Fold this protein.
Amino acid sequence: MKKLLTMALMASACTAGAEEAKKDDDKWDVNNAPGVSKVVDIKTETGTWMSLDVSPDGKTIVFDMLGDIYTMPITGGDAKNITNSMAWDMQPTFSPDGSTIAFTSDQGGGDNIWLMDRDGENPSQVTKESFRLLNSPAWSPDGSYIVARKHFTGMRSLGAGEIWMYHKTGGKGVQLNKRPNEQKDLGEPVYTPDGKYVLYSRDTTPGGTFEYSKDGNGQIYEIFALELATGKTKTWVSGPGGAVRPTPSPDGKTLAFVRRIRNQSSLFLQDRDSGEIKPVYQGLERDMQETWAIHGVYPRFDWMPDGKDIVFWAQGKIHSLNVVSGELTNIPFQIDDQREVREAVTVKNDVAPEQFNAKMLRWLQPSPDGKKAVFQSLGHIYVTNLPDGKPKRLTKQNEHFELFPKWSSDGKSIVYTTWHDEKLGSVRVSNLSGRSKTITQKPGHYTDPSLSPNGKYVVYSATSGGYLTSPLYSQDTGLFVAPVKTGKAIKVSESGQSGFFNKKSDRIFFTGSSRSGEVLTSQLQSVDLSGNAHQKHYQGPWITGFSVSPDEQWLAFIQNFQVYVTPFVKNGQYIGTGSKASNMPLKKFSEFAGSYLTWSKDSDSLSWAMGPNLYSQALSGQFDFLGEEGPEVQRQTVTLNVETDIPSGSIALQGAKIVTMETDGARNVIYEKGTVLVKDNRIVAVGDDVEIPSDAKVIDVSGKTIIPGLVDVHWHGPYGNGQIIPQTSWNALGNLAFGVTTTHNPSADTAAV
């Protein structure tokens, strides 16, 4: 027995070792990225957005370009690549003794601070963040510490920064300041020469929400000084045009920084004794004050050691400016280099086919017996037999849109909502033959309907309109329950969303939310059919959907787009859950992502959808304690073939400069009086001698530039930006009714030629 146990332990150790080795093999390495490798030549005397630094002895410039770091003599000349790799390396800065260069690199899996010898040898990683990534390193005067900007995000993909200090040998660092909000930038840290302060720039426009198209003539950014001895912060530079990229002179008596003069970013000096501020150069490239500036609002520049000149990048070149005489000198550089890259992953698609398969199938879910599926696409609800039936419309009407379909417990009915731009919406129940009954007694903005297991009640949310949708019938919002027979509704919650019934049909589960700063926590709650006997169940940050199994033994939820399942228990208080919860057994069901959680009638399996794919997983396939090994995740693809809506007629865009994307150098750019001829849905001719049909509509685009075939599918229209949509129009997790919008929504337009 002892021998067998030893052998088992050895086998287990070998297996664990093999699994660990596999994990190491699978670990992402940017310098050994997958794909087809090729080498491209670079030969240039100009560069874009180049951060630079001057060595303490004034003899060498170090700068970045296209993700590599170069050094060259202060007089200019051939630049030497000291970090040639696939990694993106940037923002180099010499240590005070000139022996070491700190820089930002993603070679460890994300932006972190690294060190290397001044010749590029012996690289070492200082910070090792995998989520709150860092950039913009700056040395302390004694060369022992480095300050850097750490990136934080909240409810939006943009974010804000904090200044953290690290010992040059590593460690988790020390936080120097606290970001005032989660959406407005803070960065560009640098020590003063006496080591007493760390300077930085910050977006100080009013409010805590990032906004596009800010007024660059006013004050967007200010420069602040953090006193290290006391932790106190005070303003050093403010005023119209803003103030960014603080750069103190070697003696600390002068502060160089960037400020706008109208639309022109300019180099300014501030005398620290008198406070006098004056411009010394008005030819910088446009700074990034109005936009995101995660890596800094303007590239790093530096003083010469004697404090008489400033070396900076602008207009593609490196310049030296004498701050006394104003004399500007170009420091020429030449780069004759190569880059290893990976060939782009491309997929050949049939251009403008007469038919296509719809891929955005919303609310895709199987029937309780798993034999059918329902979904919405192109504004209407479809039902199909599984696994490979042909989808058919649930109804025959074309007067309004149909949304939020959901099966009844017996699989014989489907409850859904409608939308019409003028008549607004309703909640309806339809049998599988398409015969519908309207439940709601007045028009409104309705979402998330669900039928009770006994078929007697329907619960739904009523939201407010405005902006794109009609503002009418927006006064009485919340979660409502109504008998199917009469439709006489009772409000059971002022702010609940995504309601569904318990197995006895006498309680309603729904999602509430609370917000702390930029963290949104979702809460599963329940009430009786009168809105009383309130109970708390589960909660967790960034959860976008709860679903309790029909037998009320399991809870499924979606967090950060992934599907999870845990036992469902009650204790009268919120039970915390989430992807890292350890209070109960928890399993991740989805591999990529998932939406539209649906339980089987017997509560033995869970389904979810992603695009046209419907996934299902038996609980026994995930939870070992259920006693028997269940099947793997099952996937079924629902195919909805659609006729392409092809326009007719010809349009000629005449008079523009045209970038043709042809490889022939003689024809890749048509500089004057070019024409793009479009017939139906295809570009049929591009050139400066195109014959225009007599029936074509001619549009004069003189003075414009066209890239034929380039499609822009990303646009922030005024109604697609959550900053102007009232919170009452959103569901508990910030989505505008999960896509209920008008027939014509400008934020969904595609600009294409």
Notes: The radius of gyration is 31 Å.
